[in-house]
Fold this sequence. Notes:
By secondary structure, the protein is an alpha/beta fold. The chain contains 20 helices and 16 strands.
Amino acid sequence: MANERKEGRQGPPPGGPPRGMPGAKPREIKKTIGRVLSYLEGYRGRLVLVAFCLLVSSGSTIAGTYFLKPLFNTFLMPLKGQQNPDLTAFAQALTAMGALYLAGVVAVFLQNRIMLTVSTGALYRIRAELFAKMEKLPISYFDTHATGDLMSRYTNDMDTLRQMLSQSLPQFLTSCVTIVGVFVAMLLLSPLLTALMMAMMLLNLRIIKVLGGRSGRGFARHHRALGAMNGYIEEMMEGQKVVKVFCYEDKARAEFDRLNRRLAEAGTEANTAASVLMPIMGNLSYLHYAVIAVAGSALAIGGGMDLGSVAAFLQYSRSFSQPITQLSQQFNTLLSALAGAERIFKLMDETPETDEGDVTLVCAERGADGSLAETASRTGLWAWKVPEEEGFRLVPLAGAVVLKDVDFSYDGIKPVLKKVSLYAKPGQKIAFVGSTGAGKTTITNLINRFYEVSDGEVTYDGIPLQRIKKPDLRRSLGMVLQDTHLFTGTVMENIRYGRLDASDDEVRAAAVTAGADGFIRMLPQGYDTPLTADGGNLSQGQRQLLAIARAAVADPPVLVLDEATSSIDTRTEALIERGMDRLMEGRTVFVIAHRLSTVRNANAIMVLEQGEIIERGDHEDLIAQKGKYYQLYTGMFELE
């Protein structure tokens, strides 16, 4: 991203927006639900079993409660007043009731266990498709989207989706079945008490709506505050050296205190509404129970209800309000999960990097007559396989790059390159110099087809760049960037990243060429030393040497060196100068450098200013012109 910022573009703020956090709401609920359910199609048999278990668990609870009516009326009341009552039938009834509840417990266990397997499998597919799609996105997408925001798709959004599939959705459906079942059972027992119960439940629903809405808004503010604070912490951790150098500690603490206080206030507000909801609903359920008990007793005394029906209805009154409360809570969780799923699917629906090329890169060998022929073995000779009307032709990969009247703009508004024309013959070293934002890195990005030219043409060995398939094009190019990125793994694995089929000897030879072999052998485990945290256990210069070795093992015909030696001290630079010369020998090389001493031996130096080439020539020609390059060069020596 540092190179892109050089060209004057601005990305989103650090940390990313707080969208998709709990408290957010999806925009297209029906469409999102359909896409989530599509990942469950392979588990239809298991989902049918889950539905059966769900019905059994809810049905056992409802039936067990309804069993109180015959338990009282048939098995207990007839025993009233008997000296030596026979409890055999009563014990059998209790055993049947216990078996009913036991079946419900087993069903709940099976339901949770199966849904855990289903949700894990579905999320595996979603993550795999999400990562595969991310790998196909163009560089421009990552330039305009914060890393933290993209990472939240894999963490926060995926976690809320997991919770929805494994817990919230089954509980939501269970609550719905329970509410319907309990309501029907209450109607069968007493329509009058059911009407009284529903009247009291309207009050509950009103309270849930008010407190739930306030809690939802509070949690939305809480997660926005949490995102801001996390982004600030990440920024401060990465910039600790700058913080200490400029004595920014007091200011940093003050800003953190402000963000932390805002998070605490938002969390207090959100949790206050959420925490009082359950106690209020619990106390109201006791009030409802008391009212129903009084009304039921009055009906029983008046002969309007039997004792068993009153006992069963009282139990239903306790179990009716709980699923309604759970339903409201799960509903908010489902909305939050669907919002996260919507963000995941939005990334999946992004337009992938297009590639209309039909020219491929193949291994070649020369026949006795000097003609080229394609071969499956690696010969060290490469050729472009260009389709034609009748078959194809092979063009030797030489590394001739030509830009003709190239215009380019990142946003379609502000031009970055204007009518840039240049040619690089095979084996030439072309250098770009100029101030920050002049367009140097942009030219190399166009050669790699990280971006497409707005106007003009770029050719590679006489073939229009658009005709070459991007993977084949990039396989023929080697890049050493100013910002080195190392992966988790050993030193040897990081160098081999340049060519995955390289042998250990080839990796070591590349390290020798780059001048990295000496320090690598001094590491605790040599080439097998593990690297973590982007090579945090190495110096910046050592990391840069590994990047150069990575390019060397790739053995490409064209090299792009973007400030490749910027992090290497003068002594180290002198030690690897011959190695770099060997690396560049016979290759077309594009060099971007602020240290003008590194480009003096270039075949041609392009001086850019505001997207235009204002001067071109070799070192002596440009010094003789006494123009911009002369000013930069003499100014550099004055600084020294």
